[in-house]
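ok trying again, last paste got cut off:
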Amino acid sequence: MNRVVITGVGVISSLGQDVDTFWGNLLAGKSGISEIESFDVSQYPTKIASSVKDFNPEDYIDKREARRMDRFVQLAVAASLNALKSSGLNIQEDADPERVGVYVGSGIGGLSTWEEQHKILLEKGPKRVSPFFIPMMIANMASGQISMITGAKGPNSTAVTACATGTHSIGDSYKLIKYGEADVMICGGAEATISPTGVAGFCAMRAMSTRNDEPEKASRPFDKDRDGFIMGEGAGILILESLEHAQKRGAHIYAEVIGYGMSGDAHHMTEPDPAGAARCMVKAIKDAGIAPEEVDYINAHGTSTPVGDKSETMAIKKAFGDHAYKVAVSSTKSMTGHLLGAAGGVEAVICGLTLQNGIIPATVNLDNPDPELDLDYVPNVPRKSDVRIAMSNSFGFGGHNATLIFRKFEA
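nice, full thing came through this time. structure:
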């Protein structure tokens, strides 16, 4: 079986459209959350989101082609090209294109395209609906477009598992390389649902924060005053390679992927079950061949919902026992917002950078600790730490759970 390493990272988010800017803002504790400007939110209980501002798809994609892509696909392509650039990989020269795959998911897909075309259907009739409507909207088109633009002809697929999408995409890609089905995978998640219907739907569920007067303080995972998540948009992409392939071309290695777990709650559409999340973490630890006590840092799912943060804390205690009180746990969603299907991709990038730089990003806005939540959540200030092994959790509606484990690279 092959060892699998991260050789490239790409992020498009409210905190930056390149990895250096993103990482700098994350360590500075900056928030990317602000009032929604893309449509009228006067009638919405939640008026804030973590939007990617000043994104120009034509910096990455031909203008004509960009017009035929939903925003989530544009974001996915941009992050993938950035990740490839950081990896130094030329697919045509440094690899066999038939052994380079793409696995980029989206929790919801082209929601804004759906909205636009549905409006045209109602106002102008079926003959005016765009012939590009379906290929712009469907969730697999991020992987499809990335493949076409980069020439990657290997395994090509898409996960759609709500907020676990990005993590499942990376985990499945890790397995493809581990078992010899591919040498390289472009993988992660993308999402762009800050739209009238998307925001209205989550508002109707009462899942989002209504702290509209303090956008930067609205996402407050594990805090007693948390009142819901903040929707984000963007993309997080990794370039995974077999260690042999990476070393052969002299690639820089950010970290190694060593474990992947997945489970189903079989419990409830939207309310998580701590037992399911704990089982997922235990599976990832077993897959990695390590002891629970070896995990130094957990990038938590940590969405800032009252139920979710409590459930994850209970799950960590169930999975780790006494070590739960010794492992550092932080939620970077306190700054990025919750990127839904892209969250796992962005947070995998964060884990790779944490291992490389020896700094754990903080959970900001943790001002009033919830007495029921008593783990080490790295409150408000990033922490220097020689992290050797990091875990990333993602839990999606429907009871979809995914966990990845990364290790500081040692040859």
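cool. Residues 71-87 form the longest helix (17 residues). The chain has 14 helices and 14 strands.
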